[in-house]
Design goal:
Chain lengths: ~350, ~350
């Protein structure tokens, strides 16, 4: 009898669904296996007011094809007024900050953050979480590490503000989790598995190119250990980011790895390999429920240790997206969803 | 009156010319501006005996389109006999070692080298230089650094063996130059200009993907300073490596940057920017003549500070190769060749 595990309401705490035809293609691929997901607001133009947020949520729900699925919406950070925040609060899970003003210099990064501190203050008082893409504009391998001083600053200055370090990729970021009570983090599937070697160590692999870029073996190891131990402040966030094939396999490939449809099965394989299957529930849902105080719809997802070949691509609505592990055989698969 | 400099017999001390149609396309692009070049032997199958070497040299000379050009031939390292070395000695400039047996562990790297020490001994006695691709099979950013212990070992154990550290990319390798009298190095154009940021810091750029991969800003700075100062043991070696377009702009891009046709003009721009034009002659030819004791054919190459747009591609013989800086305007150009 094949090994099995039933997961309760898996959550993806960092997800890109895009819009239009791409949204129609990829939304059901997440909504089928996940009970909910934190939806990134970086559309063009960004989701930066309540109307846009509610309309975007409608489009997502309209694309769910009947699956029970809660899109946890976010706003794109800007100088919001108190009234705007009050109106939006009940419709979102947090506000996502892309520190565009930050530079290679972490002091300057903090300074850029400094200018918008009144918004952080209001968010802290209204208990609206802050989700951060924590990278400076420095050397690609140093960007996250250089940003950590900004996390230190923010977490200290706003001790009641819940701050999520999104898609962490370094051992240094893992260590931050134990430094401030109000810091937590998401980590992707790929950063538990790959290093820069997989992107650029042999042939260049555009389908594993993402931001933040995959780092060193010791970084992957620290992330993996924290995930396997289900560190209570570490949540799964796929950062699954679909791009049309022509934007991946070309000169000037866009950053992003598409993992949504295979993430649960691949995580089961990974946790099983390290004999930590018992911790997968917390990493995939429990930690997020505790950290965010959310209660997702009930969904039972059974994974079984049976081979599953990842499709070469997911197509539809004139879209063509190549997933991680395209064409490869995984050892686990989703066998039942109730 | 535009700034000018006349270079005498520029040399490219590390060059890939491939074979067949590609050789026909790229050979004249080097032979026009350079007086000579060290030709890499990594064909499929490799150039690993005198007959193959002489035949390859013929094909290169046949593709020079009348340009004065000396191909300095190399053999692909293997367990050569003393007789083979004696026969080949006068027809080549050295033997190129790709340490396929080396691993992440530099001790194991030395061990792998250990097995072929009799060949090194013969080369030392016969004054045949050893050219080394110095990378382990470790993490992509560490491969060169991990290999440095092998250089240390070889240079100490065979003090009369002239060893060239090919295409160095790190500050640590630059420091090695002053540690052993018998170590010297080549450096490419791209490693004086780019870092990993240019390959994977923004969009992924396959045309700047090469091995060894471009490293950190402080590495580039150390390489650039050594080049600008015309460190007497540092020679220009383009490692210009043409790949057909379909092998660059695709999933699984091959490593190699094609710089041959623009290297001299781009180096003039670089040395001019840093007010070191006076040192370009040594870096581009003098150091190599001293290190290898070669006398290339006389060729006067005048570069002028006038704009030059790099072609989008070089095509011919059913080949299509995209150069570095494709479509960009350089500030210097080759204005005359005598």
């Amino acid at each position: 009898m094949a090994k099995q595990l039933t997961l309760q309401s898996p959550l993806d705490m960092h997800l890109h669904l895009r819009d239009g035809d791409m949204l129609k293609l990829v939304t059901p691929l997440t909504a089928e296996g996940f009970a909910g997901a934190v939806i990134m607001p970086n559309l063009v133009p960004p989701v930066d007011n309540l109307d846009k947020l509610l309309e975007y949520k409608e489009r997502i729900l309209g694309a769910c094809e009947g699956h029970k699925f809660d899109p946890f919406m976010t706003l794109f950070f800007r100088q919001y007024t108190e009234q705007e925040l009050a109106n939006a609060k009940d419709h979102m899970i947090g506000i996502k900050l892309y520190p565009a003003g930050a530079t290679t210099n972490s002091e300057a990064g903090v300074k850029a953050i400094d200018a918008v501190e009144p918004v952080f203050k209001m968010m802290e008082e209204m208990e609206i979480p802050l989700l951060v893409h924590g990278e400076t504009h420095g050397f690609v391998m140093d960007r996250e590490k250089e940003f950590l001083a900004s996390y230190d600053y923010l977490a200290s200055k706003f001790p009641k503000l819940k701050i999520t370090m999104e898609h962490i990729t370094t051992a240094d970021a893992v260590a931050m989790l134990d430094r401030h009570e109000n810091l937590r983090a998401t980590v992707t599937l790929q950063h538990l598995i790959i290093t820069l070697d997989d992107v650029a160590g042999g042939l260049l692999n555009p389908h594993l190119f993402c931001k933040p870029i995959a780092k060193r073996p010791e970084d992957r190891e620290a992330l993996l250990q924290a995930a396997l131990e289900a560190h209570p402040k570490l949540m799964f966030g796929s950062d699954s980011a679909p791009h049309p094939l022509e934007k991946k396999e070309s000169c000037g490939c866009a950053a992003g790895v598409f993992t949504a449809p295979l993430a649960i099965a691949r995580l089961a394989q990974l946790f099983d390999k390290h004999e930590k299957l018992d911790n997968l529930q917390a990493f995939l849902s429990g930690n997020a429920q505790t950290q965010y105080g959310v209660t997702p719809p009930k969904k039972l997802v059974t994974v079984t240790k049976e081979p599953f070949t990842v499709p070469e691509a997911y197509t539809g609505f004139q879209q063509h997206v190549v997933p991680m592990h395209a064409g490869e055989e995984l050892e686990w698969r989703i066998s039942q969803i109730d």
